[in-house]
Write a structure and sequence with these properties.
α1 runs antiparallel to α2, α2 packs antiparallel against α3 and α3 runs antiparallel to α4. With 127 residues, this protein is an all-alpha fold. The chain has 4 helices and no strands. It has a domain of 88 residues.
């Protein structure tokens, strides 16, 4: 009887951790929105609460696992944000490079053709 009181919360925590990791992994490399710190903290609080029914080393391990899951999720969220920023910076650098090449091509033209070329180039660059 006493075993079921400690085993059930442990199983619940393990299932929670598995679901938490699965959801964190699906955000990597997908267009799904990253988890916010509020969502991560909420999951952490639920995981910590599941540890309350445990005692001794089992409780300590449970709490450390909850902290580890939280830290991993935060790291995934930060990496995803930094990746998005890096992709944006790379796209801007490429666009600027294409603009410089296009400007040189437009400089070889004259009159209305040059004006039209520059207008088209600026429109494409500012997208």
């Amino acid at each position: 009887m006493n075993l079921s009181r400690t085993v059930c919360p442990a199983i619940a925590l393990c299932l929670s951790a598995v679901a938490f990791q699965a959801s964190a992994q699906t955000t990597q490399g997908s267009s799904a929105p990253l988890r916010t710190n509020d969502q991560i903290d909420s999951q952490y609080k639920m995981d910590k609460k599941a540890c309350d029914a445990m005692k001794g080393n089992q409780k300590d391990v449970c709490q450390k696992q909850a902290e580890a899951n939280r830290d991993k999720a935060r790291a995934d969220a930060k990496a995803g944000k930094e990746k998005a920023e890096a992709n944006h910076d790379a796209a801007k650098t490429k666009s600027d490079a294409d603009y410089k090449v296009g400007k040189e091509k437009c400089d070889a033209m004259s009159g209305n053709a040059k004006d039209a070329c520059m207008a088209d180039l600026k429109t494409r660059h500012n997208k």
